[in-house]
Amino acid sequence: MVVGHAEFSHFGANEKEQVPKDNFDEFNSTPGLIVQGPIYTAEAPAIDAGPVDKLIEYVDQHGAVIDSFLNSLPDADKNGVFYPFFNAMSNQHANKEIDFNSLSGQDFEAWMLKKGISAPKQAHIIAMVKAHPGGLDAIFHLIKEIRNMKDTVDAAIKQQPRKEIWDTHGEGHVRYAQKHHKYGNIKIVPTTWAPGKKPVGAPQ
């Protein structure tokens, strides 16, 4: 059994081209396959937006150094080094191997060394960290706070009355953008979930 959320007009289409879809009945004539359409919450959960306002103030104060630091790095480093690092740390956090909120630049440097990132690339990233004091720390702060906010939203959704069908160990929740929405598609995944999370009771 799988859950469907959207469809693409053709195979290989860009992810941004997906269109929300509510009914997947046409797939349910296939033996051995059940496709469940999305289950919607009855109403938007009540959320305290105060932490968001504080984070906006933080970005106003530190945005310049964050931009300067990020602009000093090629996209290959942002996508090929920082992204895997934060994904790996999220996975370890979900498995209770580390506390994501305690991560620091030292942890990042140790991870680069352990993962075998080339010496020139490591040297350049570390040099840019030193050249933009506070930039990396500010990024860490933003990511930690955003993760905590997503947990708050996820918990609020889970407190709502359950529908006839619900997931037991789902990845998270999705809101597809509509014309009246200020922002685009939003996916809320709790920090307790990760693609590589060990099953309960699995050997460590």
Quickly list its features.
single chain, 5 helices, two-stranded antiparallel ribbon, two-stranded parallel ribbon, 204 residues, mainly alpha
Describe this entry's structure for a reader.
The protein has 204 residues and is mainly α. The protein has a domain at 50-152. Helices cover 44% and strands 7% of the residues. It contains 5 helices and 6 strands. The chain has helices at residues 50-71, 75-94, 105-115, 119-131, 135-158, and strands at 2-3, 6-7, 19-20, 35-36, 173-175, 186-188. The strands form 3 sheets. Strands 1-4 form a two-stranded parallel sheet. A two-stranded antiparallel sheet has the order 2-3. Strands 5-6 form a two-stranded antiparallel ribbon. The longest helix is centred in the last third of the chain and has 24 residues, at 135-158. The two termini are 29 Å apart. The model has no long low-confidence stretch (mean pLDDT 87).
Total DSSP helices: 5
Radius of gyration: 20 Å
Query: Main sheet?
Result: 2 strands, parallel
Task: Estimate what percentage of residues fall within beta strands.
Answer: 5-15%
Please state the overall shape, judged from the principal axes of the Cα atoms: globular
Oligomer: single chain
Helix percent reads 40-55%
Mean pLDDT: 87
Q: Give the CA-CA distance, first to last residue.
A: 29 Å
Low-confidence parts lasting 5 or more residues at pLDDT below 50?
none
Strand order, largest beta sheet: 1-4
Number of strands: 6
Which structural class do you get from the secondary structure elements? mainly alpha
* N-to-C series of helices and strands: EEEEHHHHHEE
